[in-house]
Amino acid sequence: MLKQLHSLREGVSNLIRWFPIIWRDRDWDQENLYKIVHKKLEHMEDFFRSENTHIKAAKEVADEIREAKVLLANKINTAHTNKVDYDTDEFISLKNNEFNVDRENKNYKAWMKEMSAAEEQESKDMKAAFEIIGNKSESWWD
Questions:
Q1: What confidence category does residue 4 fall into, taking pLDDT thresholds of 50, 70 and 90?
Q2: Quick check: 106 and 114 in contact, CB under 8 A?
Q3: Model pTM greater than 0.85?
Q4: Fewest C-beta in 10 Å: which of 67, 132, 134, 137?
Q5: Domain limits, the chain
Q6: Residue 116 pLDDT
Q7: How far is CA 56 from the centre of its chain?
């Protein structure tokens, strides 16, 4: 009976802590998939850093999880593209409720080059996060 009560309490606790993530989930793109995986990594890292673990390598496991979590956060938070800083008003304007882009503007070309490189890095970070998960997650248990 005590085990069942503990299981019920843990289940309700999980529902509460996952509710905001699931509430915002939509099925039409990958962004929420990444957020769900990131949240799971966050919970797992917290567990392996807690006093509730029984394995000696708990800190190392938590560090591996953190590495994947940080890389995935770069994709979720557009960490690299947010650093691309240009005055886009110089080459993007709004006229008659329509965006107009001066694609011949040298700053537009430089901005596009930097944005492409930043997007590529975010994609690499996401792939690296899932590579860590794929290669190491089977040893992430207590």
A1: very high
A2: no
A3: yes
A4: 134
A5: 28-137
A6: 98
A7: 28
